[in-house]
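Q: Here's a chain of 83 amino acids. Please give me its 3D structure as tokens.
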Amino acid sequence: DVGEDEVRAIIAPAEGKTIDPVALIKFLEERMPYYAVPRYIDFVDALPRTTATNRVQKHILRDAGVTASTWDREVHFPRKRRG
């Protein structure tokens, strides 16, 4: 179901802030090519980081994959079929 070409964004909003995924997608669509706009968005409290260098542990985010709580742009903005 989920191909390699789908973009997934993991966002950790500032404490006490929220981000509306629909507003975010509309903002990005005006500024990015369609293929670069994330299909999936996950909101997390904090990004997993290493203790030594404080770098984001991307492998942990990749391994989590798409879950039931992942926001899917295709649900809210389905592609129109040609023909």
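Q: Can you summarize the key feature?
A: DSSP finds three helices and three strands in the chain.
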